[in-house]
């Protein structure tokens, strides 16, 4: 299966989601994460080879992809309309991560509008949801009221997600009491993608 993460804005948890969805899919079958973002954040995260799957740049991908059953693609921020068209053609599922922040939701609605025109199969993922506020619930309600496809689970805002990249690990392997909670959230997303 080919899962592509995209967003019109940066900082919405695209790379964090790509890494953890790839970690889930790797438990099912060999999975490759393709880092197609110029920032190369996923590649930097993988530099110590402590991730349970391989990360490769877009340029290096053709040599490797046939060995893998699942591909996860972390794309550049601010794709143009034509880029979105290509992503739709090239994926089985397009995931749009967004925080509950109104500006991020607004950018997501713009992406949805473009994707609607392309009749794309996509799903919105709420990330960095702060359990101490109502913002996650409000964002979920407004997206649901618009009948938009949304993952049932939210990704909570947790320190483990911020710290794991420095250690080059996924949250499951980060030594923090709430790391399991963090991993459980992406496991639930993974099950929605591939039970
Ligand atoms: N669930 C989360 N909880 C806390 N911090 C998060 C979470 N998801 C992402 N972050 C942090 O937010 C910032 C942006 O996330 P990132 O995955 O790099 O987004 P993008 O790839 O969309 O730019 C990073 O500093 C990351 O560590
Ligand atoms: Mg990124």
What does this structure look like?
There is one protein chain. This protein has a single domain, classed as P-loop containing nucleotide triphosphate hydrolases (Rossmann fold, 3-Layer(aba) Sandwich), CATH 3.40.50. The protein is globular. The chain has helices at about 15-25, 40-45, 80-90, 100-115, 135-145, 160-165, 180-195; strands spanning about 1-5, 30-35, 55, 70-75, 95-100, 120-125. Helix 1 (about 15-25) crosses helix 7 (about 180-195). The two termini are about 15 Å apart. Helices cover about 40% and strands about 15% of the residues. It has a six-stranded parallel beta sheet with strand order 3-2-4-1-5-6, sandwiched between helices. It binds adenosine-5'-diphosphate (ADP) and magnesium ion (MG). Adenosine-5'-diphosphate (ADP) binds near residues 16 and 127.
Bin the helical content. 40-55%
| Tally of separate domains | 1
Average pLDDT confidence is 96
Low-pLDDT ranges = none
Structural class: alpha/beta
Do you know the CATH topology? Rossmann fold
Could you give the topology of this structure?
Layout: E1 2-5, H1 14-26, E2 31-35, H2 41-45, E3 54-57, E4 70-74, H3 81-90, E5 93-98, H4 102-117, E6 122-126, H5 135-145, H6 159-167, H7 179-193
Parallel strand pairs: 1-4, 1-5, 2-3, 2-4, 5-6
The structure holds adenosine-5'-diphosphate and magnesium ion.
Please supply descriptive tags for the structure shown above.
binds magnesium ion; 6 strands; binds adenosine-5'-diphosphate; single chain; 195 residues; 15% strand; Rossmann fold; alpha/beta
């Amino acid at each position: 299966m080919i899962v592509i993460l995209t967003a019109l804005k940066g900082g919405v948890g695209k790379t964090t989601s790509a890494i953890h969805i790839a970690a889930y899919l790797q438990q099912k079958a060999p999975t490759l994460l393709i880092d197609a973002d110029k920032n190369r954040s996923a590649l930097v995260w993988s530099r110590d080879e402590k991730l349970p799957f391989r990360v490769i740049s877009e340029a290096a991908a053709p040599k490797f992809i046939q060995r893998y059953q699942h591909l996860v693609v972390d794309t550049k921020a601010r794709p143009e309309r034509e880029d979105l068209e290509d992503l739709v053609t090239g994926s089985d599922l397009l995931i749009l991560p967004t925080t509950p922040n109104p500006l991020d939701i607004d950018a997501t609605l713009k992406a949805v509008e473009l994707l609607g025109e392309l009749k794309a199969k996509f799903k919105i993922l709420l990330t960095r949801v702060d359990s101490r506020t109502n913002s996650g619930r409000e964002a979920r309600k407004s997206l649901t009221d618009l009948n938009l496809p949304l993952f049932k689970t939210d990704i909570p805002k947790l320190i483990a997600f911020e710290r794991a990249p420095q250690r080059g690990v996924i949250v499951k392997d980060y030594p923090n009491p709430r790391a399991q909670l963090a991993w459980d959230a992406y496991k639930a997303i993974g099950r929605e993608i591939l039970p």
